[in-house]
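Data availability excerpt. The first of two example chains:
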Amino acid sequence: MDPFQQMSDWKKNMDHFFGDSFWNEFEGIIKPNIPQINLYQTDNELFCVVNIPGLTDLDKLNVYVDYATLELKGSIDIDNARGFVVQEEILQGVFERSISLPFPVRSDKIKATYKNGLVYIQLHRLISDTSRKNRINVHVLEDS
């Protein structure tokens, strides 16, 4: 019997026993997310650092922001055709990743740069007109 068919049958049995969402719990372990990201938050800003080694054409990287979601699409290609792979830890290939942001961000104030294999994305909190707090200055009135 074909070993791939056996693996498929085994997975179907596990899905039936544990439920269809069973494998979702293991997705980060079985197949780690690419690209790797770090996300940092201040009161009104988010700063995302994305690991994309070997990027030579910035047109092959697509960065989208929609309200409270950051979406990354592209490819990690490490061009090294010398010999055969003995050990491979740097994940490669086409990726599509969606990151939920902790708050909505402005679409008109985004800065993205690339240097030394890292993409830096700076996002600013969206403060709607209905929830904006404006500090009111209080002036002292002189007695006349």
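And the second chain:
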Amino acid sequence: MKKRIRFYNFLLDSIVFLITVVLVSMLLKKHVERESLKYFMIPLYYVYYFVFESISGQTVGKMITKTKVISVNYPERVGLSNIFWRTVSRLIPIDIFSYLFSNRGIHDVLSQTQLKKL
């Protein structure tokens, strides 16, 4: 998978998440202090990846770039445990930089997943 497509996925998903943050912030501004919103938004970032990838193998960014998460061992499907470990692995601070040295990020290697072009 080309690094450029992965970068586009990240960029598009970041834009979708930013829009979500703005909308949720506007909805909750009367009920939650601004400083407390981060305790809601940070987990929401990981929930976004987990829910989208576990349901369809794709986030919004992957839908636009026509890529999908698949299992290395079973390419026809990806298991919930693969998606769980993929999502948890995103918590590793250097995960985003792992693409500088490899075509597969840390979250791909640890979860035994990869991206497939549709």
